[in-house]
Amino acid sequence: MSLQKTLKRVVKLKKREYPSLLRKIHKKHNISKRTLFYVKEYCSDDSVMNVIIKESLNILILASFISAIGGFGLESLKTTFIEILPLIILFPVLNGSIGNFGIVFASKYSTMIHEGRNKTHPFKSKEIKELVVKLVIIGILTAVLASIFSLVFASLRGFEVVPQVTSKIFLITFIDLTFVPLLIFIISAKAGSYVYKKKEDPNNFLIPISTSAADLLNIAALAILVLIFF
Amino acid sequence: MSIFDKDFNEILSGQILSLIGGLAAGILLAIYTDNLLLVPAMFILIPGFFELRGNISGSLSARISSGLFLGVIKPKISNSDLLRGNIVASFVLSILICALLGVLAFLVEYVIFHISFPEIILISVIAGLIANFVTIIFSVCLTFYLFNKGHDPNNIMGSFLTTVGDIASVLSLILAMVIVA
After folding, report:
1. Who contacts A14 (Cβ-Cβ below 8 Å, separation ≥6)?
2. Nearest-CA neighbor of A176 among A224, A134, A123, A132?
3. Which backbone phi and psi does A124 adopt, to 5 degrees?
4. What one-character DSSP code corresponds to residue B153?
5. CA B91 to chain centre
6. Complex ipTM above 0.90?
7. CATH class held by domain A78-229
8. Distance (Å, rounded) from C-alpha A35 to C-alpha A32?
9. Touching check for B143 and chain A: CB below 8 Å?
10. In this complex, which of B22, B52, B113 lies closest to A96 when CB atoms are compared?
11. Does B30 touch chain A (CB under 8 A)?
């Protein structure tokens, strides 16, 4: 079957048929699962704009509420936060990095579930263990680089970089980029197994769940760490 | 255990790109702290506002990729129904969600901190329009470019969008502040 015919067939698939056929199409035509997911979700004959708005609005509203809860935590610590210039520089990095780790874990774990490569408990699987180790190593590298750059730039802006503050910034970044992603991996693994048992496609749920959890947990962790260290 | 393999390098490359974008956004936030972060409710708005670029432009890019693979979108930017529908839907969603984020920020600030700053709603909507204009154009052009070069854009666009989205978000908030002030 040609690629276009196969993709047109994906559009007409029922939700329950989709996860099992996805693996075959992905392997045969070498198209990412994310692409196949969007082919299924958005390439029907309905009005394009209506389908997109209908499908996206609820999850975006939920994500906005979750972000506002996190933002409220930050607003409460505004005065302390603004005084520590390296933390302001680090904030977008921490938020983005944890979200990225969540997306990488969620999409790879979804693939493992679809391909039947995760028959035991998620964290007993060799592949999952390797993935977690990789992400933790990248988290530590990111923490070191981000801390150095934030401290250097903060000192250029007149912030007094003393050893006590430097060690606190390193520690906050390290804890945030290693322990928070681990929590998100656990949430994703549990949610992924549950969703798949319910015969739904984990791709549809895991990425929004992991990014929302990443946002909220990162801000909560930052707020707690700032309260403890400063 | 093979840790430092192709997978590791791909994740690390994406992470470094995202780190550069995040640091650039953070540096801009630090430079404009007085104009931006001291504004009431700004901290409530910022996390959701940053996340929105990836959520909307990331999905737009993935949908266009699907259309290109399916053959329903021609590999050249044109005024087709599908492409127009995708772009308009992304703009509508961004305006709706930015307005919601602005209202939420205003309400939380007013109810909990007893500070009334309704301008935050206008700042959110204007900044959302500017940031999405930049990231949506960037997403569309880069998705077509990558597809025409033989890549699956879904594997590459995420990190690029995080980087561009972070910088565009901060700059658009600064611009919106100037306009509203």
Report:
1. none
2. A224
3. -95, -10
4. G
5. 11
6. no
7. mainly alpha
8. 5
9. no
10. B22
11. yes
The residue behind tokens 């979750």 is A66
Torsion over CA: B39, B41, B43, B47 (sign): negative
Residue A91 CB contacts under 8 Å (≥ 6 apart), including other chains = A222, B26, B29
User: In Å, how far is A21's CA from the nearest CA of chain B?
Assistant: 17
Nearest CA in chain B to A159: B30
- Please give the Cα distance from B5 to A216 (Å, whole number): 31
pTM of the predicted model, to two decimals? 0.79
**What is the C-alpha separation between B124 and B141, in angstroms, rounded?**
25
Asked if A43's CB is within 8 angstroms of B72's CB, the reply is: yes
Using only the alpha carbons of chain A, give its radius of gyration: 21
Find which of A32-41, A211-220, B41-50, B70-79 is predicted with most confidence, using mean pLDDT: B41-50
B62/A48 CB distance under 8 A: no
Residue type, A198: K
Sorted by where each starts, the structural domains of chain B and their CATH numbers stand as 6-180 (1.10.357.20)
Q: Would you kindly state where each structural domain of chain A is located, as residue ranges?
A: 3-42, 78-229
- Cα gap A165→A169, rounded to integer Å: 6
- Residues of chain A in contact with residue B112, where contact means CB-CB under 8 angstroms, are 72
Question: Under a CB-based contact definition with an 8 Å cutoff, are residues A177 and A147 in contact?
Answer: no
Q: Which amino acid is at A1?
A: M
- Report CA B178 to chain centroid distance, whole Å: 20
Q: In this complex, is the C-beta atom of B72 within 8 Å of any C-beta atom belonging to chain A?
A: yes
Q: Identify the three-state secondary structure at position A34.
A: helix
Subunit contact B18:A100, Cβ cutoff 8 A: yes
Would the pLDDT of B156 be above 90? no
Question: Tens of pLDDT along chain A (230 residues)?
Answer: 677 777 777 766 665 566 667 667 777 777 776 677 666 665 565 677 887 888 788 878 888 888 888 888 888 888 888 889 999 999 989 988 888 888 788 877 877 776 777 666 777 788 888 889 999 999 999 999 999 999 999 999 889 989 999 999 999 999 999 999 999 889 888 888 787 777 666 665 677 677 778 888 988 898 899 889 88
